[in-house]
Specification:
Two copies of one chain form a homodimer. Chain A is α+β, with helices and mostly antiparallel strands. Chain A folds into two domains: 258 residues, L-amino peptidase D-ALA esterase/amidase, CATH 3.60.70.12; 119 residues, Ubiquitin-like (UB roll), CATH 3.10.20. Chain A has eleven helices and 14 strands. In chain A, strands 1, 2, 3, 4, 5, 6, 7 and 8 form an eight-stranded mixed beta sheet that branches. In chain A, strands 12-11-10-13-9-14 form a six-stranded mixed beta sheet. In chain A, strand 11 and strand 12 form a beta hairpin. The longest helix of chain A is centred in the middle third of the chain and has 24 residues. Chain A starts with 13 loop residues before the first strand and ends with a helix.
Amino acid sequence: MVNFEGKDEYPKKYFFGSSCAGLKKNANDVLLIYSEEPANFSCVFTKNSFPAAPIIVSKRVMDSSNKVSGIVVNAGCANAATGNAGIKDAEEMIKAAMEATQSKTPFLVASTGVIGIRLPVEKVKKAIKKAPSSFSIAGEEAAKVIMTTDSFPKYCITKYSDYSIFGISKGAGMISPKMATTLTFIVTDAAATNEFLRKSLKKAVEKTYNRISVDGDMSTNDCIFLLANGASGTELTGEKAERFQRSLENSLMRLALMVIKDGEGATKIIRIIAKGFYRSDDARAVARAIGDSLLVKTAIHGEDVNWGRVLAAAGKTCLPFDVEKVAILFGDTKVFKGEVQRYDESSVKKYLKGNEVVITFDAGQGKEKFEYITCDLSEEYVKINASYRS
Amino acid sequence: MVNFEGKDEYPKKYFFGSSCAGLKKNANDVLLIYSEEPANFSCVFTKNSFPAAPIIVSKRVMDSSNKVSGIVVNAGCANAATGNAGIKDAEEMIKAAMEATQSKTPFLVASTGVIGIRLPVEKVKKAIKKAPSSFSIAGEEAAKVIMTTDSFPKYCITKYSDYSIFGISKGAGMISPKMATTLTFIVTDAAATNEFLRKSLKKAVEKTYNRISVDGDMSTNDCIFLLANGASGTELTGEKAERFQRSLENSLMRLALMVIKDGEGATKIIRIIAKGFYRSDDARAVARAIGDSLLVKTAIHGEDVNWGRVLAAAGKTCLPFDVEKVAILFGDTKVFKGEVQRYDESSVKKYLKGNEVVITFDAGQGKEKFEYITCDLSEEYVKINASYRS
């Protein structure tokens, strides 16, 4: 049994194993993340009215247990809209993970894939039991196991002298804020209380995953799990707590950007900065209205300096503005301030050819702002989603 | 000067004329709707935070005048985000229309086309003055003048023995409820007070244009104008008022369906029926969440029986449901009731090949329902909007 302790950039006493239950074609689809020392943890779950069975079961784990032995995940079947039978299947996955690792504390469970199909639970259990035999896989391989329409594995690692943080994520469509979005798992060998982890994760998600969108759709299975097993002996207090917070936010943002970059059919990242508002809620509403506008997303895809659509989309909020004070910038170029500005269209067109576009909407009122990150909308998005059964 | 009185299906004493100001390529782009007898009227305007100049000016007409002589419209330039200069241009259009028809009462004004470009107002005025020389054009030709990305003209006529209703509409993208959506003009030779017309139009729009969506985007220029010049001598009171209401709703629904049918890149109409709710607002929220979901719209485009996306989209509302009671139907086939149902996938797939798809979401709680009409999302939508400057 080889673990990550040999590769000193990984958090201590975590083991990643994978195997194949036949849910994905010719690829491993079951991932077992095991912490040799039961870990403190916190979770953020989707707010969807119809949470999938693993979400329901992981919530129960959170309510009934102070520690977990790790996370058991499958890709290829969401185990969503599967009724009580599905809940039993998710519980069986936890049981199999505990047996496979001879753990007494439970696991968190997550699934991703097609909605409305029962898990072939016997096959999945068999695969879970086989997973520990591959406890040597690297982070990249772990990230690959949870991929569905993703085109590349998403993982990141941060190593300090006294502890490390490692995270994986998946997602390319059905991504929108108002909850966790995507499956994301973060493990650290720092030591922290559940209360600390809960506050820390909530704050970090608010600043990262809750600000991204691919298509404005929300999944039944989204969750972010954070585990801290304390194996490094480093307690997260004082300055160390602050450094951890920055580092967690940084890790989540790196993963979130990978998700956007891998947005189905996306060719460009679009950053919407709504600023100059009296109320931050208004800044958020305007940034989202612009970032979720199909007309804005297609215009940017077409590399068109179409600030008129940005203005119209912001106006969808029906908020009151003093139009004379409103400015719109594409990159550094002011294209609108109360009315159209003189600008060099060819240089802005050239700017739009880049793979990251910043659109700033300045209400010209107060000091509140909100940044929202999305991607363009291409024919390819439609092609993928007209054929893939999610 | 030929008018519609010769063609007895049209409302009496209305004249439609068109001409070319060079805003569209090789097509007439200015439309003058003239009522020989000043007409009572009512309007519904976009709620967008950045209303275009013609919206601002038409609101002023509504506030300052009890009657109008008609409607003056241009296509090809939205006269939006054009500041005070744009407002002056819209006022000039009204002045030109009044001069061209020697009217003492004002006109309503509307524009559609690209945002953020000044009107070439001298050319537009010249075209308006020429319009009366073509006062013989038929309804279809009038509807053609206001087309932008529309692929066919949208008009409808209802003839009773005692009066008629005639309407035209335009729109294919940037269509979403919460306001009027599209330019739509309805004229009748029945007689009614402004108060009656206001209530009647508001109610009819709520049941028709406020229930359709192509892409969830809201325009700066949307408006619906209703004119009643009383030339038929028929007063809309008692039963006649009720018949008029039904007829107005019917006309608006016919026009609204034409807009959806012409939705950019659309290949299918999708009717979302959300029923079984305690609160009608919840039914509306769920119908819209499903109908606005890109994943649902692309799945229907791909003719995929993907009820999982319907469930996930409904769940985006974060409303509480008793999932055991929730049912989803594609056409008449129940595909979900608490969990997936046994159904003949091939027959549902065949159903989805049709050009109209009905998706029913039954919350299984109360008696409130809401119907929402949209279209599928195709690669063609993206292609159109990545290249067309709206």
